[in-house]
Amino acid sequence: MTSTAVTGSQNARSPSYGRRWPRLLVRSIGLLYLALLLALPVGLIFVRTFAGGLEPVFTALRSPDFQHAFWLTLTLAAIAVPINTVFGVITAITLVRRRFPGRGLLNAVIDLPFALSPVVIGLSLVLVYGQNGWFGSFLKASGFQVIFAVPGMVLATVFVSLPFVVREVIPVLREIGTDQEEAAYTLGASVAKTFLRVTLPAIRWGVIYGVVLTTARSLGEFGAVSVVSGRISGKTETLTLYVEERYSEFDLIGAYTAAVVLALIAVAVLLAMNALQSGRGNQAREWVTDLLRLGRRKRRPVAETNQAEI
Amino acid sequence: MLGPGIAVAYLGLIVLLPVAALAWNAAAAGPASFVTAITNPATLSALILTLFAALIVVLIDAVMGTLIAWILVRDDFPGKRSINALIDLPFALPTVVAGLTLLTLYGPKSPFGLNLAYTQVAIGLALLFVTLPFVIRSVQPVLLELDQDMEEAAASLGASQATILRRILLPTLLPAILTGSGLAFARAIGEYGSIVLISGNIPFKTEVASVAIFNQVENDDPAGAAAISIVLLVVSLIVLAALDLVRRRRSHEETTEL
């Protein structure tokens, strides 16, 4: 961008009281803070990973434990995301469209995974499915291991990533109302057909956005999975656990390589979120607000970009 | 009743059952052992450190978050859109990667020669990283919708920038700042992944509550771990309930104005 464009847009936007030097000062403080906290550390980890050339990175990527951790991480997400998507949509529709006793309580329960530390979530699963847990003796008798095995890790992943789809779909359902669905019913469409042809297309952006967030959370989960997995290399170790294990074994390249793989996934998620935001008709970045039920007031479309840039 | 049945079964099985087990284990041994579990010196010190660190971090978040939101809305400079997109990175980046990332810059091999690893400052740094988006993302939409007329009117009547900030901008943004800060606080007291590598987990010095819970689980003391967990859960529920109250009062004010 040229400097004239900057000046021009400032003239257009800044109120008359905006003098130049405090604006520059505030900008410098903010950007320095972001650089020191965010940009430099994240940039440096890429530099450190590739400092010794590509060969050590490829060796690290080929290690059997990395490969196992990578596929296990994908497997967990591949199980948790569909579960939370299907049941999340059903739960959202139920909460918005139906009145039944306990509805308010159910609505509050959805946010519990946000209020709980991941470690606490892991612990709570151990207390149910662990050796001395509620179902411990039953599980032992039937020979089915949950804790220190993949089923426990699936439960932990589903738990931590549960709120996203529900919270993304609920505001969309409220906004679209029931007129079209009722029209479909009047015309003789079945419940299934109405859902597939009317409701689902209307909520699709909310669902997709929720799925992206659920996927990111599933792939990156650490604390809860750490407690329930027992962290057995090559067996119950996900990619995030692998990062910690390699770091504590002083295998920095191994840790950095896995961290960079996870960071690249995170960047891909960010790009997807940005693309979706424009797909959703520029509803700005209110997803934090959406997610935590802060967005009850009617949303006005907010121009995300500067008018000067258009 | 198919819909409610499925929703109850889903949330009951995945969320409520484990949380019930947590509450039951914390309460089962009676109030005396609950108190003993959380007043154990190492545990108490971990709890105090956690709350204290979260409080300081949230204060910094409130100031810097508002400032950054202001830059992203009112200021204009090359690369602003990329920076805006970057703000969400701490939400997308796995926490353990965030911890490792901070270690490369502020750890033993710091290019600045600034080794903060295994200090309480490092805990603050990790918490600042993971809570960065909360205040920014709750202030930003409010600032975008805010009409600048009032500020311009105040300026034309001779108000200084400090007065405009204090009398117009901050009162309008305060509910959003409080919301973001509350969410950041609830997140900070339970944080584990970003802290575990960088803090060293030294009891009485850098061991936070979530790490204390983790250690108690490893040492086969689930009742003690459950007791600390309940304290954390109650604190974050109180904070979230307070936010709900602020929000309701605000929406009440909005409707009565009309």
Give your account of this protein's structure.
- The complex is a heterodimer of chains A (310) and B (258).
- With 310 residues, chain A is mainly α.
- Chain A folds into two domains: 16-41, no CATH class; 52-297, MetI-like fold (Orthogonal Bundle), CATH 1.10.3720.10.
- Helix content of chain A is 74%, strand content 0%.
- Chain A contains 16 helices and no strands.
- Chain A has helices at 3-13, 20-50, 54-62, 64-97, 103-110, 112-115, 118-129, 136-142, 150-160, 163-176, 179-186, 191-220, 223-229, 239-248, 252-279, 287-291.
- Chain A is globular.
- Residues 1-17 and 281-310 of chain A have low confidence and may be disordered.
- Chain B has 258 residues and is mainly alpha-helical.
- Chain B has one domain (29-257): MetI-like fold, CATH 1.10.3720.10.
- Chain B is built from twelve helices and no strands.
- Chain B has helices at residues 2-28, 30-39, 41-74, 80-86, 89-92, 95-106, 120-145, 149-156, 161-190, 193-199, 209-218, 222-257.
- The mean pLDDT of chain B is 91.
Summarize, please.
Chain A is built from 16 helices and no strands. Chain A is mainly α.
CATH topology call of chain B? MetI-like fold
In whole angstroms, the N-to-C terminal distance of chain A is 12 Å
Just name the CATH architecture of the largest domain in chain A. Orthogonal Bundle
Unreliably modeled segments of chain A? 1-17, 281-310
Low confidence ranges of chain B: none
Write the layout of secondary structure elements.
The complex is a heterodimer of chains A (310) and B (258).
Chain A: H1 3-13, H2 20-50, H3 54-62, H4 64-97, H5 103-110, H6 112-115, H7 118-129, H8 136-142, H9 150-160, H10 163-176, H11 179-186, H12 191-220, H13 223-229, H14 239-248, H15 252-279, H16 287-291
Helix pairs in contact in A: 2-15, 3-15, 4-9, 4-10, 4-12, 4-14, 7-9, 7-13, 9-13, 10-12, 11-12, 12-15, 14-15
Chain B: H1 2-28, H2 30-39, H3 41-74, H4 80-86, H5 89-92, H6 95-106, H7 120-145, H8 149-156, H9 161-190, H10 193-199, H11 209-218, H12 222-257
Helix pairs in contact in B: 1-12, 2-12, 3-7, 3-9, 6-7, 6-10, 7-9, 7-10, 8-9, 9-12, 11-12
